[in-house]
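Q: How would the C-alpha cells look for this protein?
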Amino acid sequence: MWSHIKKLTGSFLIIGISILIATACQPVNQQSAENVPPAQQQFATPELIHKADSVLSKMTLEEKAGQMTQFTSGYTTTGPTINPNYREYIKEGKVGSIFNAIGWKYTKQLQELAVDSTRLHIPILFGFDVIHGFRTIFPINLAESCTWDPDLVRQADSVAAAEAASEGLQWTFAPMVDISRDPRWGRVMEGAGEDPYLGSKIAAAAVHGFQGSDLSAPNTVLACVKHFAAYGAVEAGREYNSVDMSMRRLRSMYLPTYKAAVDAGAATVMTSFNTLNGVPSTENHFLLTDVLRNEWGFKGFVVTDYTAIMELRHHEVAKDSAQAALRSVKAGVDMDMQSGYFMNELPTLVHEGKVSEKLLDNAVRRILVTKFKLGLFKNPYAYSDSLRAAQTILTQSSRQLARKIAAKSMVLLKNDKNILPLSKNVHSIALIGPLADDQEDLLGSWSGAGEAKDVVSVLQGMKDAVSSGTQIHYVKGTDIEGSSEAGFPAAVAAARRSDVTVMVIGESRNMTGEAASRSKIGVPGNQVDLVKAVMKTGKPVVVVLMNGRPLTIDWLQNNVPAILEAWYPGIEGGHALADVLFGEYNPSGKLTMEFPRDVGQIPLYYNHLNTGRPRNPNNKYTSKYLDVPNSPLYPFGYGLSYSTFSYTAPQLSATSMSPGDTLTVTTTVSNTGKVAGEEVVQMYLHEHYNEVSPPVKELKGFAHVILQPGQSQQVTFKITPEKLEHYNINMKKVISPGAYSVMIGTRSDSVKSAEFTITGTGNAND
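A: Here is the predicted structure in C-alpha cell form.
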C-alpha cells in the first residue's frame, strides 16, 4: 500500500553534504540564524527541507494551491461525513488538510483517498479543536491557568494529544494565548487570563504538552498558536470585533504570549478574525512576515481561522475572492481554512503575474516539511490505530489527572467563619441549583469529543464522598435561565431540614466560548433570587459557581458566607469539588482574571498605568467612579485557603545592580493556620520615574510552597535582566537606570516591598 510513498522517500535516505550545505543556505524563512529560536531551528532542518523540495519540484500549480487548502468534515446522525465536492478535490490533489474529521476509521478512509488516488500521493493533515481535552475533558483553560502550574497544563495537553492522535488526528487548534481583560468576551474561557508573564509560561507549557519532544511519535500532535494577534482585546468584548491599540501596548502586553509559544517550538500559527489598527490580521504583513517570521524566526506554517480570507471582503479590504487570496498570501498566510479561495484563485493569480510562484513554493514547502516532521510520508496511517485508541482513551490515570487539576483550579473566594471545609459526617446537606446534578455543562465549551455520560456530576461526587450517615437532599430549584420560581419552595424546604446548604449556580456552557459574548455578566436568570430565598432560612450557605468568565457577583460577596469558584471543572468535576468542599484538598487556586464589581469597570486589570490624578475620595477631580470603587471585587492573584500564610519583607542580595546583573530576592512564608496548605507566592516589579509611564506593578515570578501548620520556608526569586527590560520612548527594548520596587505577596494587592536601583544604562546584551 505504501510503495508509492517509498518511491518518493527512498531517495531521501542518503543526502550529500553539498546538498545539505546548499539547502541550509536557502532556509524556509529568510531571517538570519541568530533570530531563530533553537526549537524552531530543529523544526525545519535542512534534511526535511530537502525532502519537501523533492516533492515540491514535481507539483503543478493546482497541486500547490491544493496543499494550501483546508476543508471541513461535517457530522450526521450516522457519524462524520464529508462534502462530495471535497472528496473529489482530495482525489485531484487539491486538499492539504481536513478538520473536524475524527475517528481512526474515518480518517483512515480519507487518508487512503489522498494517498492512493492522487498523482503524488501526498498525505492529508487532520486537525481538530482539542482545547482542554479530547475525551478526557479537563477544566476549561481559564480554570487551568488558576492553578498557576504550567507543568500541570503540560501534562493535561499531553494526555489530550495522545487521545486525539489515537483517533487519527495530527493537529490541534490550540493553545489560545490571547491576553484577555474583558470578561464580556466569551472566549476568555479558552485562555490564561490577563497577564503576559504567566500567560507566556502557560503558552510554552501547552506547546510542549501537545508536541512533546518528537512530532513523529504517534502520541503527539501539532500545536497551533492562536489568535494572531491581540484577539483578546476586541472592542466592547464582542466576538469578531475590531482591535485598536498602540504599538507599545501590543508589544508589551499582547505579543509576549505568542512569542513564548513560538520560542517553545510551535509548529503552526492561526490568524485572528479581527482587524488590528485597521488592518485585518489575515492580510497583515507586519504581523505575519515582519514580526512572526523575520523577528521571531518562526519556521512553521500559518493557517487562517475559519473563512477568514473570505471575510476580507466584509472588512472591505478586498473586492472579490481573487483580491482576498492575493492580499492574504502576500501577507504570509500559508493555508486557507475553508473558503477555498487559494484553491480557486492562486493558479490564475500566478499565471497573470500578480503572485510569484516562489511565494506558493515557500508556503507549500512549510506545509510539506510539517508532514515529513510528523512522519506522514513514512506511514500515513500511523495515527489510525484501533488498538492504541482503545488503550489510550479515558484511562484511569487520565481521569485521576483531571480530578487533580480540577481541584487545584478551584478558587476559594470567601469563607466567613470557616464554614468550609464541611464535615463528611454532617447529618444532612441540601444540594440546590441548576448545575448541581448536571453533567453536560461541566464539560464547558470547546469540549472536544467529550461525552456527558462520562462526567461525574456534583451530586454524584458528593454522594461518593460523604459518610453513610449523611443525607443529601437534592433540589434543582430553578433553571440556569428563566424566571419561574416554581421550584423555590422545595429548595427552601430542603435547606430548612438540612444542616448546611450547597448551592451550585452559574452559566450554561453555551454561554461562554466562541460567539458567546455577554453585555451583562451577572449570574443569569433568577438564580441569585433563589440564593436569597434560601438565605432567609438562616442556615449556613455555600455558593459554588460554575462559569467560563469572571462574573459580577457583588450581592453574593456581601451576603453569602462562603463562595467557591469551580469554573467548568471537566469530566471529574463532581469528585474534585467534593474533594475541596470536604477538605480532602485544601484550595490553592489563584485568579488569573480580575472579577469586576460592575460591568461598567471593564476593561479592568491589575497592571494598569498610574494617572495624573490618582483616586482621592476627598477630591472630586480625581480618577474614580461616582457609584463604585475603582478596585475589583477580587483582584488578580486572589484566592483563599483553609490555611493562612504570613510573609516577611523581601530581603535583597544587593540594593543596586548593573543592567546585566542578577539580583536575588528572598522572603519567608509561614503557615499560620491549622491545616497543611499550598501557597502561590507572587513576585511583582515596578519601575519608578521614567520617560514612559510604567505599569503600577507587573508579575515577574511565582513559586509554590506546601507547608504544614507552623512550618516556614524561605522562597527565593531571581531578578534577571530580561525581567527588567521594557520599551523606551523610541520603542527599543532597554533596561533603564533608576529606582525600582520588588513586591512579594499572596495576591497583586497584598504585597510587601523592597527597593533597589539600577546604575548605568543599556540592555542585557551590553
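Residues 405-601 form a domain with the Rossmann fold fold (CATH 3.40.50.1700).

The two ends are 59 Å apart (CA to CA).

Upvote if useful.
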